[in-house]
Specification:
Elements (H helix, E strand, L loop, with lengths): L1 E4 L10 E4 L3 E5 L8 E5 L2 H16 L10 E10 L4 H11 L3 E9 L6 E6 L5 E5 L9 H4 L6 H8 L5 E8 L17 H5 L1 E9 L11 H12 L7 E2 L3 H6 L2 H4 L4 E4 L5 E5 L2 E5 L17 H14 L4 H16 L9 H17 L1
Helix pairs in contact: 1-9, 1-10, 9-10, 10-11
Length: 349
């Protein structure tokens, strides 16, 4: 296992480390012509959302593009990862965040999927090759990044915010090893705030997350240390898990175009979605909006932003993601658009 750095900078204390998945996306309906290749998986989107939240907090409107934010993205990739893949990822994130760290899995493949949006703008996808089997994610996402990987990246800093995407289903790839580094005492001592985005897929026919998967999510979240300062599940997972678990945590439940619901000390508040600024008010591409929301709300809460206000900004960031075909450009106009959308969400409260 090796750590490959795409860019090297000196990062200040209380920086943000986003740990997530990298998946090569082939976007396009099966049998309908050429596909568009891009880098997805949730991790890059969460990292960009975290950076965008920091840019909004900075209130620095004098730079275009805005300054790079103290965010490091960490993701595992196979040894099939190419220079062109690296360039694609750098193009997405390089202007916004300070560093990208890739954890290589020798002899393994980077997961690859074909995905498309149906007529209702619901995402559909299918795995290509053995993307989530033994030669892909099932081995690649096991104990990557390791505790030693994380310690080499964190160094001696003891005020790091970490946002982690956690595979939560009982039979999920990696068998829970994607967050194994959080069990290490030395890593725990260096984290000042932890945000978790648990993932468990709903059944295609019922649209619900199974109880087996829901119990697996609870088990894995309970095993995280330090305890997550905020958890951001999607609505299907939230409804599958017993409410007594959520009531003991601070939660931001993502409901897509219906907005989100925040839960703090057992009290819930509905947060509206922002109106999309697209010509017909429909999303260009909603992929990654939930990941960007989760990365943003973790960072905002780690900076002491009240939960209701954090949810307004995170909702705005998720909406702005929907207005672009992929990750938005890193520009002053996008930051201003997020502030405008957040003002709209506040007015709806």
């Amino acid at each position: 296992m090796s750590v490959e750095s795409l860019s090297t900078t000196t990062t200040p204390s209380n920086r943000v480390i986003v740990v997530g998945k990298v998946i090569i996306d082939e976007y396009g309906k099966p049998g309908e012509g050429p596909v568009v290749i891009s880098i997805g998986g949730g991790g890059p989107q969460a990292a960009f959302g975290a950076a965008l939240a920091l840019a909004v907090l900075s209130n620095d409107d004098t730079r275009d593009p805005p300054a790079k934010q103290p965010v490091t993205f960490v993701g595992p990739v196979g040894d099939d990862w190419t220079d062109s893949d690296a360039v694609a990822l750098e193009t997405l994130l390089g202007a916004a965040i300070e560093s990208i760290e890739l954890i290589k899995g020798p002899g393994l493949r980077t997961p690859r999927i074909q995905l498309w949006h149906d007529d209702d703008q619901c995402i559909q996808w299918r795995a290509l090759y053995d993307s989530f089997g033994p030669s892909g994610a099932d081995s690649l996402w096991a104990n990557r990044p390791s505790a030693s990987d994380m310690l080499s990246l964190i160094g001696y800093d003891e005020s790091v915010t970490c946002h982690v995407i956690v595979e939560g289903g009982k039979k999920s790839p990696g068998n829970g090893g994607d967050a194994q580094f959080l069990h290490d005492d030395a890593v725990q001592k260096r984290l000042s705030f932890l945000g978790a985005e648990p993932v468990a897929f709903a059944d295609d026919e019922s649209g619900k997350v199974s109880q087996e998967d829901a119990k697996s999510v609870v088990f894995r979240l309970d095993g995280l240390s330090p305890a997550p300062g905020i958890i951001s599940p999607d609505n299907e997972l939230y409804e599958a898990v017993d409410s007594s678990f959520w009531n003991n945590h601070e939660v931001a439940t993502r409901k897509g175009p219906k907005g989100s619901v925040i839960l703090q000390e057992g009290q819930s508040t509905a947060i509206s979605a922002a109106t999309l600024a697209t010509p017909d008010g429909t999303p260009v591409n909603p992929t990654g909006a939930g990941n960007s929301y989760s990365g943003a709300i973790t960072v905002l809460r780690s900076r002491g932003v009240p939960l209701e206000e954090a949810a307004c900004i995170a909702s705005a960031i998720g909406a702005v993601f929907c207005e672009y075909s992929h990750i938005p450009p890193w520009s002053a106009d996008v930051v201003a658009r997020v502030r405008q959308a957040a003002d709209e969400v506040r007015r709806k409260l």
